[in-house]
Specification:
The chain is 34% helix and 17% strand. Helix 1 packs across helix 2 and helix 2 crosses helix 7 (217-225). The radius of gyration is 18 Å and the shape is globular. The chain contains ten helices and eight strands.
Length: 286
């Protein structure tokens, strides 16, 4: 897909985490900053400039520890989602921001939600895109994913992708690559390229992210119930990672939340319809 906008220059900068790990963050665009947390854990490059959001706001995109250009930590237990919250707090201090707008995608929304619960006065606005829901203990049952998958039954790639999904759901298969078309609104060459270049490389970081103790849903929910900042939860109509019904349940945990379902979009809504994604997100961030 050709974007009308020119990609802004990406500058890479570094700072020290509380335990001394050297972490990278990347700056794109100008204007008021938004700190962006990628999912994966897979480095931040797959976010691009979020479909052109960098034309409206300066994006400060973190490579979580052990991904992208951030160092691999000495202590693998520091990959835990709850521990990554302190890396975000260190970034806020490093940037000299009293309060920040925070955006989390996918697994990064689990970090962002825990951050907001722990540091509610440090977040001015919170945007959760295709959000993971583990941090708040919202389960996404197989049947809910299957329902979204069946909505794509007229796609040419559907039969093989659905067979692979059924096998994964039943515990008889693990061909995750075969189900990748379900995560995109259009399985075209740009989606295929995006998929190929956005897979996690550090498996230790992936496993460590959700290790024992990474999530305390009750504490996080209690913290979020006290949050007063405006929250945007945006997911794609077909997002199997973050189905609209699960995201609506997530939105209900906040005092001031807007839940938006982007038509025709999968798990990367800025790829499926950049213009619509940017209009919604830029309007929310103001």
């Amino acid at each position: 897909m050709d974007h009308a906008h020119a990609h802004p220059r990406r500058r890479s900068l570094f700072y020290s985490a509380p335990d001394g790990a050297r972490l990278a963050h990347h700056v794109l665009g100008d204007g008021d900053p938004v700190v962006c947390l990628p999912g994966g854990p897979a480095g931040s490059r797959y976010l691009g400039d979020l479909g052109g959001l960098a034309a409206h706001r300066q994006l400060i995109v973190l490579d979580t520890r052990g991904t992208g250009r951030s160092a691999i930590p000495d202590d693998p237990s520091s990959y835990r989602c709850d521990r990554l919250v302190e890396d975000v707090e260190a970034l806020r201090e490093h940037l000299g921001l009293h309060r920040m707008d925070l955006l989390g995608h996918s697994g990064g929304a689990n970090i962002a939600a825990q951050y907001a619960a722990r540091y509610p006065h440090s977040v001015s606005k919170l945007a959760l895109v295709g959000p993971g829901t583990r941090a708040v203990g919202i389960d996404v049952p197989g049947g809910m994913r299957r329902e979204l998958a069946l909505a794509r039954k007229d796609e040419p790639w559907f039969p093989s992708a659905f067979a692979a999904l059924e096998a994964i759901t039943n515990g008889t298969g693990s061909d995750w690559e075969a189900i990748s078309p379900f995560f995109y609104g259009r399985w075209d060459t740009s989606a295929q390229h995006h998929y190929a270049t956005s897979q996690p490389e550090n498996q230790e970081a992936v496993v460590g992210f959700a290790a024992q103790g990474a999530f305390d849903p009750e504490a996080t929910r209690a913290g979020l119930a006290n949050c007063e900042m405006p929250v945007l939860l945006l997911t794609g109509e077909f997002d199997m990672n973050s189905p609209p019904r699960a995201v609506a349940e997530f939105a209900a945990l906040f005092r001031d939340a807007t839940c938006v379902v982007q038509p025709g979009a999968g798990h990367y809504p800025w790829l499926d319809d950049a213009e619509r994604f940017v209009a919604t997100t830029a309007a929310f961030l103001g």
